[in-house]
User: What shape does this take?
Amino acid sequence: MVTWTADDTFSLDGTTFVCRPVARRFRSSADELCLLKAPWEVDWYEQFLAANAPRRIFEIGTHEGASAALFAALARPERLVTVDLRPEPASALEEFARRRGLDDVIRAYGAVDQSDVARLAEIADENFGSSPLDLVVDDGSHLVEPTRAAFNCLFPRLAPGCAYVIEDWSWAHSGLGDLDGWADRRPLTAFVFELVLATASAPAVVKGLHIGKNYVVVERGTEHLDPESFDVTSCYGPRGASLLAEG
Assistant: This one.
C-alpha cells in the first residue's frame, strides 16, 4: 500500500519513491527511487493494478527502474519484463530486485529499440513463452512509428480483455511539443486517432479505449491475432485513413 509522506514522496514496502518531473529528476538508488510521474498518476496506477491484478507485465521504457519497481511492488507479478533504449543497466532497479529476492521476477533489458519488433518478440518469447501478457505499458519513445511498431508486436500477445497502456500520448498539446527537438515531431495523437478508428471498425480486435490526460488504455478484444502479421492499420478502411491524412 502506498503511504504518502510528503506531497511528492511516498513509501512502499520499505522503499522511498519521489515523484519528479523530468526537469527536476535525480539519480535513483535502491533506497530512494526517482519516479518520473505525478502523484495523481501513482494513485491511478495503484487503483488500476489493484483492479486488474496483472501477472505478466511488459514495460517499454525503464529509465532508472522506478516505474518497474512500483509495478512489481503493487501488482506482485510472476514476471515483469522492462526494456529500454539505453545500453547501461538500471543499477537501482537491479539492487531493488536483489534485496527483495525478485531477480527471477524482474527482467531488465538494455539497448532495445521499441521499433525492433524482432527483438521485442524474442524477449517476449524468452520470458513468457506461449502464456499471454496481462499488461503492456509503453512509456518509451512517445513517437508515432516506434509506438505503432511495438503495439503491432505486443498487442496480439495480450490476453483478451487485458490492457495496453500508452503513456504521455498528449505531449504535443501540453507544452512539450514546443521544446527543441520535438516541435517538428508528428504528435502521438495521430496514433491515438488510429486506435479510435480501430475501436469503431474492429471492436473484436480493439474492444475499447479509455483516454485520459496522460494515458490511453487500450482493451484487447477476443479475436485471434497473429503477432507475426498483425497491423493496426488493417483495422480501419479508406474512409478512416482519409481522416488521418496530413495536409
